[in-house]
Amino acid sequence: RYNFSIISGTSSETIRQKKPDLHQNHPNPFNPVTSISFDIYNDSRVRLVIYDMLGREVMRLVNDEFKTAGSYSYDFNASDLSSGIYFYRLVVSPSNSMESGVFRDIKRMVLIK
Questions:
Q1: CA geometry: angle at 71 spanning 54 and 89, to 5°?
Q2: Which among 89, 92, 91 is positioned nearest to 108, based on CA atoms?
Q3: Model confidence at 49, in pLDDT bands (50, 70, 90)?
Q4: What is the mean pLDDT of the chain?
Q5: Which residue of 1, 14, 61, 102 pairs with 10 in a disulfide if CB–CB is 3.0 to 4.6 A?
Q6: DSSP code at position 13
Q7: pLDDT tens-digit profile of 54-88?
């Protein structure tokens, strides 16, 4: 007699959903315009906010908008801001209430005038 088992299904790579991806702004350091891009792999609600060093909101590039899966890029014009370090934060919430998890990521950028 032989003991064996049959394993069927898809690979764990296929089963695992990809997380959203927030990219480093380009160029960085910048003066006065930089591009911020991110990828989302499921239809989601998205917020992209710029903060100063003290954590104060400077600008909302995306304000809780519904976005379909894809790649997005936004230009940030900081001509009215002073030189310094700023942060940008991406929050991605599932569009379906049955899905769980909220993705958050933050990156640093430098404005030089």
A1: 10
A2: 89
A3: very high
A4: 86
A5: 14
A6: H
A7: 999 999 999 999 999 999 999 999 999 999 999 99
Closest CA to 62 of 44, 78, 74: 74
Q: What percent of the chain has pLDDT over 90?
A: 73
Report the SS3 class of residue 22.
strand
Distance between CA atoms of 20 and 106, rounded to whole angstroms? 12
57 vs 51: CA distance, rounded Å: 5
Range 82-86 contact pairs with CB under 8 angstroms and sequence separation of 24 or more: 82/111, 82/113, 83/111, 83/112, 83/113, 84/52, 84/53, 84/110, 84/111, 85/53, 85/109, 85/110, 85/111, 86/50, 86/51, 86/52, 86/53, 86/58, 86/110, 86/111
The pTM assigned to this predicted structure is: 0.81
The DSSP element (H or E) to which 38 belongs, if any, is strand 33-40
